[in-house]
Amino acid sequence: VKAVDAVDAALHFGPQAEIYVFTPIATLLRFEKWDAVLAEPAPPKQLILDRTFWRYARGTAFAAKGDLKDAQTERDELAAVIAVSDFSAYDQNAVPAKQMARLGLTLLDGEIARAKGDLDGAVAKFRAAYELQKQIPYSEPPWWHQPQVELKILTASLSAWASLSAPNAGAVSSPTSIVIINKRIMPSSKKQRAGQPAPPPR
Questions:
Q1: With a threshold of 0.85, does the pTM exceed it?
Q2: pLDDT tens, N- to C-terminus, the chain (202 residues)
Q3: Per-residue b/e over 43-61, b at no fewer than 16 CB within 10 Å?
Q4: For 202, how many CA atoms within 13 A lie in the half-sphere containing its CB?
Q5: Contact status, residue 83 vs residue 9, Cβ threshold 8 Å
Q6: What are the b/e assignments for 149-166, b being 16+ CB within 10 Å?
Q7: What angle do CA 23, 29, 33 make, to 5 degrees?
Q8: Contact 71, 59 (CB under 8 A)
């Protein structure tokens, strides 16, 4: 991904090339490499889409690490960029940059709520993000790096369920934890839902 100068390409070719600038940090984000995400340099301010994604990624990383102060700072900076930026060049090039920025802001709100232990609030934000994601036009590859908003809803929902139904199971901190929680608290058959004991874990 970094074999070419993506920033130079974006500055030269315009908005449609910006997706390649944030691909490295998006990849790190998807694999939960939080420290590597935070080590990524800031893109130039004129690359508005890349700047908003960078803020979103940093805020998500801080929230995952439990640093709520810095996560909130990144969230506020992201909101400020969205409020003052001119997205008309993106609109003219059919790049849904403002929709993507708003999606990132809503997802970050959900991650901050989840880090605070406000699981109901996190689920609400992730559901709102799902509705925003549906407004982003279809593209190959997808405009949004992480077609997993539904998974975030499930993750936070299962965390809330785990905290009520299995206090000793622990909260779900990431999508990879869903399988563990699912085996512990999710009924696997109609018989089990009817009150019969669950089979022993495999």
A1: no
A2: 565 688 888 888 889 899 889 999 999 999 999 999 999 999 999 999 999 999 999 999 999 999 999 999 999 999 999 999 999 999 999 999 999 999 999 999 999 999 999 988 988 998 899 899 989 998 888 888 765 566 666 666 666 666 655 544 444 444 433 333 333 333 333 344 444 444 444 4
A3: beeebbbbbbbbbbbbbbb
A4: 3
A5: no
A6: beebbbbbbbbbbbeeee
A7: 120
A8: yes
Residues 6+ apart with CB under 8 A from 96: 90, 135, 136, 137, 143
CB proximity list for 69: less than 8 A, separation 6 or greater = none
Residue 73 amino acid letter:
T
11 residue type, one letter:
L
- Which two structure tokens, joined as six digits, stand for 168? 């000793």
φ/ψ bin of 141: left (φ > 0), alpha (ψ from -120 to 50), beta (otherwise)? beta
Residue 149 has which token pair?
Answer: 């908003």
To the nearest 10°, report the CA torsion of 94, 83, 135, 121: 160
